[in-house]
Amino acid sequence: MPYSCVVLVKQVPDTAHISGKAMKEDGTVNRAALPAIFNPEDLNALEMALQVRDRFGGQVTVLTMGPPRAADILREALYRGADRVILLSDKKFAGADTLATSYALKCAVERLGAFDLVFCGRQAIDGDTAQVGPQTAEKLGIPQITYAQSILSLGDGEIVVARAMPLGREEVKCTLPCLLTVVGSANRPRPPSVRRAIAGKLASTPLEYASVLERWPEFGSEEALDAYLAAHGLKIPLWTADDIGADESHLGLAGSPTKVLKVDYVVLGTSGSVEVSPDAQGISSLIHDLVEDYIL
Ligand SMILES: Cc1cc2nc3c(=O)[nH]c(=O)nc-3n(C[C@H](O)[C@H](O)[C@H](O)COP(=O)(O)OP(=O)(O)OC[C@H]3O[C@@H](n4cnc5c(N)ncnc54)[C@H](O)[C@@H]3O)c2cc1C
């Protein structure tokens, strides 16, 4: 039976490759010093969705809410195998906290029509809250399975998923449609395909037409480029707040109760050392202490 899968992905600053000062004097993120990348666990979410499609058939639609340059990760999703990608971008989304983000994503998923599975990464490496997946499920009124490690079975309107737990794993069965948040150890994301990258090199949103025309002036005008991209399945749809029928009071700053009052640097220091005897008993007592202290 084919499944309609939606994957929610976020473009994030690459915190592992900082070129310059990561924070500005005012405590905000210096995005110029951080290249933008596909949130790592969203690649695992995409791979899990692609494996469902490859095995059972259906379609994988990838959605992101972000600024115009977030189209870069949508192209990457296409090159990795997604069937359809959509950019949600509008000044009305700016300043969104997790509540406003999940509200916009919920409206967009509903606009797509019937779906069976929504996949998210467990957590984004910048905001780091792991709230957006669960909040989106709650707003869609569907069950959620967080920390998804693997799909054990899928069929007859049900899914069984293994969840990665700190000290083992848990198997959870639930009805479809449902939302999964996927952990980084779930799979090895497939690389972008060269064939798909060549075929999709012109894929762009209407917000990028001016820069596409600079590189390929032979298209002549934005109208002609739009017609070409639409005819060849290379037009990345751009959805605004109006397109998804969102209530503006729940979007962006207006819909965000979170207020950042201050940003502090936290430096973790060491205050001593513990000697562990190099035998089974020593290791066992160390593990026991780490679990007691909530470190493991
Ligand atoms: C305390 C705090 C205050 C904040 N205040 C502000 C603010 O005032 N203004 C502001 O602009 N931002 C603010 N943010 C950032 C904003 O909340 C997040 O960028 C955004 O809501 C996503 O949350 P996250 O990064 O924690 O994602 P997580 O919840 O960690 O992401 C989990 C998963 O949800 C999905 N997902 C997350 N975001 C998107 C997206 N945009 N599109 C598609 N899928 C997505 C992905 O699958 C991702 O892996 C704040 C964050 C925090 C922690």
Task: Describe this protein's structure.
Helix content is 29%, strand content 22%. The mean pLDDT is 93. A 9-stranded mixed beta sheet has the order 9-8-7-10-6-1-4-5-11, with helices on both faces. Helix 2 (71-80) links the parallel strand 4 (58-65) and strand 5. The chain contains 8 helices and 11 strands. The longest helix is centred in the first third of the chain and has 17 residues, at 40-56. It binds flavin-adenine dinucleotide.
| Strand residues, percent | 15-25%
Give the % helix: 25-40%
Mean pLDDT metric: 93
Shape: globular
Main sheet overview = 9 strands, mixed
**Each distinct ligand:** flavin-adenine dinucleotide
Write the layout of secondary structure elements.
Layout (H helix, E strand, L loop, with lengths): L2 E6 L2 E3 L22 E3 L1 H17 L1 E8 L5 H10 L3 E5 L9 H15 L4 E5 L10 H9 L3 E12 L2 E8 L2 E8 L2 E5 L11 H6 L9 H7 L6 H10 L6 E2 L40 H13 L4
Parallel strand pairs: 1-4, 1-6, 4-5, 5-11, 6-10, 7-10
Antiparallel strand pairs: 2-3, 7-8, 8-9
Q: Any descriptors?
A:
296 residues; binds flavin-adenine dinucleotide; alpha/beta; single chain; 11 strands
Report a brief summary of the structure.
This protein has 296 residues and is α/β, with parallel strands linked by helices. It has 8 helices and 11 strands.
